[in-house]
Design goal:
- This protein is α/β, with parallel strands linked by helices.
- It has nine helices and twelve strands.
- The strands form two sheets. It has a seven-stranded parallel β-sheet. Strands 2-1-3-4-5 form a five-stranded parallel β-sheet, with helices on one face.
- It is elongated.
- The protein binds NADPH dihydro-nicotinamide-adenine-dinucleotide phosphate (NDP) and oxalic acid.
- Oxalic acid binds next to loops.
Length: about 325
Amino acid sequence: MDKGRVLLALTGYHPQRWYDLISTRRDVTLEPDGTADPSITYAVVWKQRPNLLSTLPNLRIIFSIGAGVDHIFNDPGVPNVPIVRVVADNLTQYMTEYVVWRVLDHHRQGLLYRGQQVRKIWDEPEQKPASDISVGIMGLGNLGRAAAKALIALGFQVNGWSRQGYPMHGVSTYGGESGLVPFLNATDILVVLLPLTPATQGIISYDLLRHLRCNNGLGGAVLVNAGRGRLQKDADILRALDDGTLKEASLDVFEIEPLPEASPLWTHPKVFVTPHAAATSDPAHLVGPMLDQMDAFERGEPLRNTVDRVHQY
Ligand code: NDP
Ligand code: OXD
């Protein structure tokens, strides 16, 4: 098989570094060029223009530059070829760092101390040990499992909820719809690392949050969402923060991104905002494995990290 040509179609990412690195080993066409080009075999995408991929008559594989693939399924004309997503140590490490950072900040009362510092208050509130706090991870996949391991090493109790409820050593696991409320009832800090799919859209609602354990060593329940913004209802989170259902939240993702200037989440005293930066895709770490997969495919080897089209993750 000849070396296939690559179409690079990225929205919201600067394509130049991706282009430069891919072109060290393959011919690359940068969108908007490439429409209907029969020489293109692979598409490397982030939020590609709708119906662009369906114009490519010889497209064999779609590569997402991220772990999530909801941006690909947003396109009603996404062709029926394999979709490969990112599973990479570098990305996993970034997400683990983000989760540990946010969980420790809530656990060690960062918000309270930042407020005390502004007012020059020297006061040490009671601090519970990590072993008193239960972190519940929604989405116990590649990223959720790595975060769980790091939190266990720090001494937290860890729960995990997933579609199939696979067991994990050291984690109390729950599965599917019937496991959701028991999982939430046993959770003080909820960490969301789910993919956005038709089954998970809007799942982080007021109704869900009110099942979290709020009578706990933290003085209330905490939400950390680094999955996808449309998993949550921003208005429900605000309601939960304002009536005490939630004590605090760390949000990396939002229903609309960039978060609109008018959103009250920007200035809410109990919210910590980051701009979808929990685990950024770095081409220096991700392009090599992508190109290796193209080479392997051309040698007739099976693809790794493919997406299940039925469940869309
Ligand atoms: P995986 O596909 O490895 O894991 C997904 C997990 O979610 C699995 O445990 C799966 O269950 C579970 N899940 C999926 N659908 C459901 C459902 N309907 N009900 C219950 N559980 C469900 O994904 P990753 O861990 O690699 O990534 C997770 C997400 O993180 C990405 O899809 C992306 O949206 C987000 N992300 C965000 C980033 C950021 O910077 N904010 C960076 C990178 C990723 P099961 O194990 O049973 O299959
Ligand atoms: C991803 C992301 O899915 O960065 O990798 O959101």
